[in-house]
Write a structure and sequence with these properties.
Elements lengths: L2 H28 L4 H29 L2 H16 L8 H30 L6 H26 L4 H16 L17 H5 L2 H16 L1 H13 L4 H29 L1 H21 L4 H9 L1 H19 L5 H30 L2 H22 L5
């Protein structure tokens, strides 16, 4: 298995996420946009994630050569992102964000399939490769927090462009694995999707990311309004991902011992608690630190468990579209609706209400998963 080449791709890919998620809202705020407009613009990458992964997943499943798709998507992401340097008005900026995120969001689900093909029967060790993505997030969010404090939000653009180029360059180092033979009598994709456990799984994943809306769109803005420095804000983001790295290191053992369903239930429960802590105690550093360590559960445990279930639910020729559906429904549709709703709640009812709503939504995900989601082992 080409461990370091796979890990290098995750390092750059989630390094870009470590710029967009914590700091893009601050960049938009610096351009003069209000909470509703920021919520709309932050929803664009999530919305394209609803469409792009499935389109490219279909191509990958039918044409093979997934790494060609990954390389093309990575290159077009970098080239189109360059247009953001010149656009500050809402609609041109929105168009540029829609285009570059369409190709960026096509990349990861295909690369996930490639990673699992290389892992073979060692699939539970996926988290150890994926942990390098978390390290990339930590590096960019920590360094950029200091840079933004020193030079302002404009520094975000060149750094993000460089990281996007890094994604493309790292993709050149990974070859397509040998094709996997598919059974000729494999059932149709939609027969898999229509299973009650699978439908419930996707519904719970959608709600989980819907609940993340206030956090992903406004956490940095919220912390800045409390008087915390951008350096500390970056460190808070980094702390959450450090906790995520730690849980990734042990997740294959936890999956083996407890099963993906139980781990999902834990992640939904702690998400409901986390949003209350952030919304109610934004001025208490000790509480914020505790809430950020819960990222180990709300992302690390959740993603490791969910990606494991997707790999089990969708086999053979359905793997690419299964990963795409997971990405599209949860991080795409859930994230987009969450960002949009958070913008309106933030503007109309305030931060506390937005985070309380996020907590209630996470609890709904818990109930659905407890009642209907089943392990696929």
């Amino acid at each position: 298995m080409p461990y370091w080449r796979l890990s290098g791709f995750y390092l750059f890919y989630f390094g870009a996420l470590g710029i967009l998620v914590p700091f893009w809202g601050l960049y938009l705020k610096g351009l003069g946009y209000d909470a509703v407009a920021i919520g709309q613009l932050m929803a664009i990458p999530m919305a394209t994630k609803f469409v792009a992964p499935f389109v490219w997943g279909w191509l990958g499943d039918h044409l093979g050569h997934r790494m060609r798709i990954v390389r093309l998507g990575s290159l077009l992401t970098s080239l189109i992102f360059a247009g953001v340097f010149f656009f500050t008005e809402f609609w041109p900026l929105a168009a540029a964000m829609m285009l570059f995120s369409f190709f960026w969001n096509a990349v990861l689900p295909q690369f996930e399939v490639v990673t699992f093909r290389y892992l073979g029967d060692q699939a539970p060790r996926y988290a150890q490769v994926r942990a390098w993505g978390s390290i990339g997030f930590i590096l960019t969010v920590s360094i950029l927090g200091v840079a933004v404090d020193a030079r302002g939000p404009a520094v975000i653009l060149p750094v993000l462009f460089a990281v996007y180029m890094g994604i493309w360059l790292s993709s050149l180092l990974v070859n397509d694995p040998d094709p996997e033979p598919h059974p000729l009598d494999q059932i149709h994709l939609w027969h898999v999707v229509r299973q009650p456990a699978v439908l419930a799984f996707f519904a719970a994943c959608f709600l989980m990311q819907l609940g993340h809306g206030p956090y992903y769109a406004f956490y940095s803005i919220f912390m800045e309004a409390q008087g915390w420095s951008k350096t500390l804000i970056g460190q808070l983001w980094a702390l959450g991902v450090i906790a995520e790295v730690v849980i990734f290191a042990f997740s294959h053992r936890l999956l083996h011992r407890f099963g993906a369903r139980r781990m999902l239930l834990v992640s939904f429960s702690l998400a409901a608690a986390r949003w209350i802590l952030i919304g109610a105690f934004p001025d208490r550093l000790a509480v914020l630190l505790a809430a950020q360590t819960l990222h180990a559960a709300t992302f690390g445990v959740f993603h490791a468990s969910a990606i494991h279930l997707v790999h089990r639910y969708f086999v053979g020729k359905h793997q690419g579209r299964g990963q795409a559906l997971y990405s599209s429904i949860s991080y795409g549709a859930g994230g987009a609706v969450g960002s949009l709703a958070a913008g309106f709640l933030w503007e109309g009812a305030g931060p506390l209400t937005a985070f309380l709503a996020a907590s209630a939504i996470s609890f709904m995900a818990l109930l659905i998963a407890w009642r209907w989601v089943a392990d696929a082992d």
